[in-house]
Each structure stands twice: as C-alpha cells, then as structure tokens.
C-alpha cells in the first residue's frame, strides 16, 4: 500500500489523496497552521494558572486526580505534577486487563514518586459482556473507535465520580495531542458534559442487552445532589509542548520504568487493543492508530524513522497473530468471538452522547 513519504499515512485513509510526489493532502496543507494536535492560544496560560491555584486546595486531601494506565504519558504527567508543581496527587487506575508491562510501570513509578494510588476494576463479567457486544456491533468507524469511545466514558466517568466524592477540584489526564478526537476534547472537557450529560452510550440503553444495574457503571450527574461541585477535566499535554520521543526518554532517565521498552505504547497498551486493531485492519486495510501517529509526525512530535520501522512490524504481528499479536487470539477466547462476528452494524455516532454530538456539530 502506498504511504505518504512525509508522515506515513496510508493511501486508504479517507482524504489522504497522496499525489505523484508521494505526499498526502494533510502534509501539503500543513503550512496553513490548522493543526489538530498543537496547543491553542490561551490553553497554556490557563493550565499554568490552574495548576498554581490548585496547590494545597483547602478542604481536600488531594489537589488533583490523575487517571494512571502505566503508559509513558501518564507516567511523565505524574512526575511533572508531583515534582515540578508540588501538587498532592492521587493516581487512579481503571483496570481492564492491563498488561504486565503496565503494572510494572505502575509499581515502579509509584515507588519512585511516593504517590497515593487507587485501583477500580469493573466486574469481569460485565466487561466481557460489554466488549463482546461492542465488537459484534461496531459503529461505522470500526472497532477502535467503538470500543475506545465506550470504554473511555466508563473510566472517565468513574474518575469524575471519585473526584466528586473526595472533593478533588482537578482531573488531569495524560492524553497526548490528538487524543481523544478534537471534537470530543481539546484541552478540556466541556463543563456541560460533566454537569448535565448522561455518559451512558445511547445505543447501550436502547439495545435491551444490558440491565439497569450494568448501565449504572456509566457516570450520570442526574443521580447526584443538586449542590454537587464538579471538577474540571484537563489534558495538560494539549497545552504543553509535546514530543513522544522525549517523553519516552524522560520516563526512562527518571527511573519511572524498569527498561526503555516498557515506555513504548506498543508494549504498555491494553491487550484488547490488539484485537481492535485486528478487526479494523480487516475492515479498512490500515491500522486505525495510523492517522493519529501520522499527525504527530507532521507536527514533529513523533519520530518518522521509528514509526517507519515499527508500523509494519506491528501490523505484521496483528495480521498473523504472532508475538504481541497473540493477544488477538487470547482476547477472542476471553470474549468468545469468531472472526466473522467482528462486524460493523451501526451508523456513525450510534454510541455518542447527544450533547457531545451537538457540541461537535457546533465547532465544525
């Protein structure tokens, strides 16, 4: 498959439009400055003033809550908040079968930084039921989008609930630029999403496959008292300068991981991601994370050389279910799935909350 020489974007990605010189439309238009991953004016100032004012917040044991997956970005974020800003940090892990490398990173970093940590593990039977249903009933954008944007509200909402209970004013997430999709979040979740939106994906409520108790895993502010004080939910790496290679180097140098390979997103990501990528490779012909990393490459925030080598290796492992790609087989056994059940059955946006749809429409 033809790929852009400058950012590795495959020709099969919608609107790639690779020209005779081997350059995609996104790279050709990069000089316009319309970046989807760079910081916006004012975000950096807001973040700095927010972090400064959050220090030693009265009436609470912690200044901020950090969702902590054990990946490179959440590792480095914990370090910066604790060491550079002197904040009282509570690390929070939502466990959906994290890999051993991530748990190793978590234990190592917590020991080095001396930070309090809570773990939330949704009921295993519910998780298996949820993921199996989502993979059998994907929306038009495929498995990674469907599963990620249902699982994300699950752990984001649980973080909001925890912050409310502990009176923590800030949730600071280690999303790298481009994560999540800009229409969902750029630097901060819209306050309306936190204060008034039921985070239960609409299709899950309508399909009749899940009980009311199971759907209560998702955050819904309507269940809270009227006087509830809600936290802000920010992504600092959307405001700070970001370089993927430098983040990996930093967490390795600082001793937050036992070895540099553990800082790689290929090693530390959720095992079910391999099955999601496998499904999308079958349906679309390209790895669903490629547009994200291509955008980082265009911005100079990820290494062209690294991904030129690693992207084909990753795709080979996935397609052939070998090495780390064996997680495809393991996850399919866990969920009781066959290849022919990995199906796109729903229209685009079937799982998106109504307010999110309205907000994204108003910004496009």
Write a concise synopsis of the structure shown:
The chain is mainly alpha-helical and 364 residues long. The protein is built from 16 helices and seven strands.
- Kindly give the count of domains: 1
Main pleated-sheet profile: 3 strands, parallel
CATH architecture grouping: 3-Layer(aba) Sandwich
Order of helices and strands: HHEHEHEHEHEHHHEHHHHHHEH
Instruction: Provide the gyration radius in Å.
Output: 20 Å
Percent strand: 5-15%
Q: Distance between termini? A: 31 Å
- What is the arithmetic mean of pLDDT? 93
Class based on secondary structure composition and strand pairing: mainly alpha
Overall 3D geometry? Answer: globular
Please tally the β strands and state the result. 7
CATH class: Alpha Beta
Q: Number of helical runs?
A: 16
List low-pLDDT spans: none
Would you give an account of this structure?
By secondary structure, this protein is mostly helical. The longest helix is centred in the middle third of the chain and has 23 residues, at about 145-165. Helix 3 packs parallel to helix 4 (about 100-115) and helix 12 packs across helix 15 (about 325-335). The model has no long low-confidence stretch (mean pLDDT about 95). The protein starts with about 25 loop residues before the first helix and ends with a helix. The protein has one domain (about 40-290, about 320-364): HUPs (Rossmann fold, 3-Layer(aba) Sandwich). Strand 1 (about 65), helix 3 and strand 2 (about 90-95) form a beta-alpha-beta unit. A three-stranded parallel sheet has the order 1-2-3, sandwiched between helices. A two-stranded parallel sheet has the order 4-7. Helix content is about 45%, strand content about 5%.
